[in-house]
Specification:
- By secondary structure, this protein is an alpha/beta fold.
- It folds into 2 domains: about 220 residues, P-loop containing nucleotide triphosphate hydrolases (Rossmann fold), CATH 3.40.50.300; about 80 residues, no CATH class.
- About 30% of the residues lie in helices and about 25% in strands.
- The chain contains 9 helices and 12 strands.
- The protein has an 8-stranded mixed sheet with strand order 6-7-8-3-9-10-12-11, with helices on both faces.
- The longest helix has 18 residues.
- The radius of gyration is 21 Å and the shape is globular.
- The model has no long low-confidence stretch (mean pLDDT about 90).
Length: about 325
């Protein structure tokens, strides 16, 4: 399985007035190029509002791109899909949402929540086989089959996220998009969920698009890394290479601001930034980071740098050379 994004943009309209006419656009994503290959984890990091969740929802086809092209196994899925391609895509691409309190239907029992995608794709013809499979999934994520008759409100946040994971892996997908799956959980529970996701990846040979604020988690989970700022990819490449040698000032600022980060790996000059990111409604003309960058040069406010470099390490910055 391979998913490829080519110059994908996503703009959300701003409507105002009595007739709700479009008065502007929120530029959530700007010309994103990305390739997701089999059995790899891609980490996506950046501040809140940088477009991480929008990227995940575009790939999961919860949202449609404004422009650009998305390919699934070399088939263009940017527009409306045929039933056959839609079925194959939905079976192979699943998503784990950030909030385990809202991502589960409160009116459904746990067995019904997990059963829904299994039945939709006609995995089993026998109800007994179906129930046995669901019980196995529950045990795999650390729950008991007796939990299957309960409702989501009877579980803790960590248990609800385990249920969401069981639902996501029920179809044995090739890609799971993890939208900050541990951010709403306690630290001790976070480590349990991360270990579970790693075990499932090894067992099912899945790929992850792992969206997170937590750089420590991304460091241990990801094979490749994408750093986003104001809807743009400002740095990408091999995870270890980017973490050990961050080239973009924004990436270095993110690494610097992580107190739990291993000081031995911080062999780069530290950078501190102040203020808030610009509005995605009216982004800067040149480099998106130019309004906060402490090392910017004159050209940064005029021309937007292009993401360049090798496959192992790319950066969009006039001051950096790969």
């Amino acid at each position: 399985m391979k998913i490829t994004l080519k110059k994908v943009k996503k703009y959300f309209p701003i409507r105002s007035g009595v007739f709700l006419q479009v008065s502007g656009w929120v530029r959530a994503l700007e010309e994103i190029d990305l390739e997701i290959r089999e059995n790899e984890t891609i980490g996506v990091v950046g501040e809140s509002g940088c477009g991480k969740t929008t990227l995940g929802r575009i790939i999961a086809k919860i949202l449609q791109p404004t422009s650009g092209k998305i390919e699934f196994n070399e088939t263009d899925i940017s527009k409306k899909l045929s039933k056959e391609i839609e079925r194959e895509f939905r079976r192979n691409v699943q998503m784990i949402f950030q909030d385990p309190f809202n991502s589960l239907d409160p009116r459904m029992t746990i067995i019904d929540i997990i059963r829904e995608p299994v039945r939709a794709h006609g995995i089993f013809t026998s109800k007994r086989e179906e129930e046995r499979y669901i019980y196995e999934l529950l045990e795999k994520v650390g729950l008991h089959k007796d939990h299957s008759v309960r409702y989501p409100h009877e579980f803790s946040g960590g248990q609800r996220q385990r249920i969401a994971i069981a639902r996501a892996i029920s179809l044995k997908p090739k890609l799971i998009i993890c939208d900050e799956p541990t951010s709403a959980l306690d630290v001790s529970v976070q480590s349990q969920i991360i270990n579970l996701l790693q075990q499932l990846r090894e067992e099912y040979k899945m790929s992850y698009l792992f969206i997170s604020h937590n750089l420590d988690v991304v460091y241990h989970m990801s094979d490749r890394l994408i750093v986003m700022y104001l809807g743009n990819v400002v740095e990408s490449g091999n995870s270890l290479e980017v973490f050990n040698n961050p080239l973009h000032p924004y990436t270095r600022a993110l690494m610097t601001s992580t107190p739990s980060w291993d000081p031995a790996t911080k062999n780069f000059s530290k950078i501190k930034v102040y203020g808030e990111p610009p509005s995605p409604v009216n982004p800067p003309k040149g480099c998106p980071f130019s309004t906060r960058c402490p090392v910017k040069i004159e050209g940064c406010e005029i021309e937007k740098p292009i993401l360049t470099g090798t496959e192992d390490h790319k950066v969009a910055c006039f001051l950096s050379e790969v």
